[in-house]
């Protein structure tokens, strides 16, 4: 069996070494395609492989057509909107993600951005503290839970809304579970966004939802840019000089945000929530283990295209 790591943004070397160890211990061969610049390179590399480990790399119908021997694709990370699930299912290819492996890294970044914002982007002026502020966690999945854990350490009052997670599961963590996103945004001065990008959630963070946030509102987005209705967020920030937006996923309208909202808008230059050595290693090795489990034992835990 031949396993390919295809990453335009490569894993840390220590993660590749860990993946190699898992793959070779199973008696498989590992191939590496890193920092590729043309899709043609990916199409060529997938020709004879049985499994692929990717990060944010795009796996679409054309790649799946080229990968005649492919059985499984594992996205080392949580979001898998870069894989065409329908096409994968049509090609008989199993798709998995590695949930939870980078959650602490993303949560730490979210809290870091909150501190940065309440301290006025470290501009030398007096700011405020997170302690005592109401934090709303929009989607209580792996990242959301870690944000709750860290935020409690800061002394924040933590609320959450999740469309699918039962309220008693949320409340067991000492977090107040709310009934709707509307209630969450009305209640909390700070909202940390952790919904996946799906047909239902795309553009769902809009003017109607954000306008009722309390004074001194802050939205922190470590999820996806597609869930934000950018035009409506711009309109809201034009109307509300107290509103801050911090994001780990640069908006399409980054230049406009930066120009209009200096001092209350920040974007990382490229998505870096999961960019830690620990998250790299955890997600990469989990991907390798899941591939071995699938190819040897047919284990489909973490399959996302059921
Ligand atoms: P997860 O799958 O563990 O949790 C997602 C949660 O969203 C689940 O609890 C689910 O019930 C909930 N949910 C789904 N649809 C919803 C809706 N319409 N309304 C409310 N809740 C809804 O995922 P995670 O690991 O917590 O990651 C969350 C998202 O963050 C990912 O989908 C990914 O897009 C993004 N992410 C970004 C980075 C980064 O580098 N910035 C890293 C990891 C994840």
Automatic annotation (TrEMBL):
User: Sorted alphabetically, which keywords does the UniProt record give?
Assistant: Oxidoreductase
**Keyword Oxidoreductase, does the record have it?**
yes
* Database matches in InterPro entries: D-isomer_2_OHA_DH_cat_dom, D-isomer_DH_NAD-bd, NAD(P)-bd_dom_sf
Q: Name one GO molecular function term.
A: NAD binding
> The organism sits in which domain of life?
Bacteria
Query: What's this protein's family per the entry?
Result: Belongs to the D-isomer specific 2-hydroxyacid dehydrogenase family.
State the name under which the record lists this protein: D-3-phosphoglycerate dehydrogenase
Q: Which organism is it from?
A: Bacteroides faecalis
């Amino acid at each position: 069996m031949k396993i390919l790591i295809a990453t335009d943004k490569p894993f840390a070397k220590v993660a590749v070494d860990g993946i190699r160890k898992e793959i070779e211990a199973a008696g498989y061969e590992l191939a590496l395609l890193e920092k590729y610049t043309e899709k043609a390179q990916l199409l060529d590399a997938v020709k004879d492989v049985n499994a692929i480990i990717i990060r944010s790399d795009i796996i679409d119908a054309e790649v799946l057509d080229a990968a005649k021997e492919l059985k499984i694709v594992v996205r080392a990370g949580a979001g898998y909107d870069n894989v065409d699930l329908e096409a994968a299912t049509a090609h008989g290819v199993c798709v998995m993600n590695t949930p939870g492996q980078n959650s602490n890294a993303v949560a730490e970044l979210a809290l870091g951005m909150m501190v940065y914002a309440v301290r006025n982007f470290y501009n030398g002026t007096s700011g405020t503290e997170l302690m005592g502020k109401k934090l709303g966690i929009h989607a209580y999945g792996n990242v959301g839970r870690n944000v709750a854990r860290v935020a409690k350490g800061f002394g924040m009052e933590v609320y959450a809304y999740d469309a699918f997670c039962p309220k008693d599961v949320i409340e067991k963590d000492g977090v107040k579970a709310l009934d709707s996103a509307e209630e969450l945004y009305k209640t909390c001065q700070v909202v940390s966004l952790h919904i996946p990008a799906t047909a239902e959630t795309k553009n769902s963070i809009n003017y109607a939802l954000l306008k009722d946030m309390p004074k001194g509102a802050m939205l922190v987005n470590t999820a996806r840019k597609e869930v934000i209705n950018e035009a409506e967020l711009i309109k809201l920030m034009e109307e509300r000089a107290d509103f801050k937006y911090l994001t780990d996923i640069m908006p399409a309208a980054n230049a406009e945000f930066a120009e209009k909202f200096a001092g209350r808008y920040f974007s990382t230059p490229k998505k870096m929530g999961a960019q830690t050595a620990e998250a790299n290693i955890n997600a990469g090795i989990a991907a390798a283990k899941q591939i071995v489990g699938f190819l040897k034992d047919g284990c489909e835990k973490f399959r996302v295209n059921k």
